[in-house]
Amino acid sequence: MDYDYTFKAMMLGDASVGKTSLTIRYISGSFLEDLKLTIGVDFYSKLTSFKNKKVKLQIWDFGGEERFRFLLSQYCRGANAAFFLYDITNPLTLEHLPDWTNIVRKYAGDIPIMLVGSKVDLEEFRAIPRDEGIRAANKYNLASFVELSSKTGQNVEKAFQVMCSILFEKYVYPNDEFLEL
Question: Which is the CATH superfamily of the domain at 5-172?
Fold first, then answer.
């Protein structure tokens, strides 16, 4: 084994919010313009380090179309975290947050969920103010909130570093009063 910890993280949200783009940007550092919709689930992994420990992140990129929703309960099992993405230019994508979080909490338990406003490179088309995303994260008791751009790379690494911090706090150092970064 070449790593100290393995965490399973799910990428969730409606179709075309940028889940695969975010995953590929994080894994490879590049942005692919013409991605196809995810059919069912795609799996990725990346070795990273956090707090001088080697961490293997298994990223489960879940297809956002309604017809794949029945699969979600099975894939939630064993998950340590989830990223819920919405497109800042499309209000409908944030409206589905309660549906997704209810399923995750029912089948994966009380895992940390990060709310991610995607496509901030399209600021001129923004339809969801940043404050509305923050309010939604608070309302649904989510672990964290970030806005990012998979296209430019803005806040991509930060999102995964924050999630690693949350995962370490929950699973590795659960009895510490705080985790110093």
Answer: P-loop containing nucleotide triphosphate hydrolases (3.40.50.300)
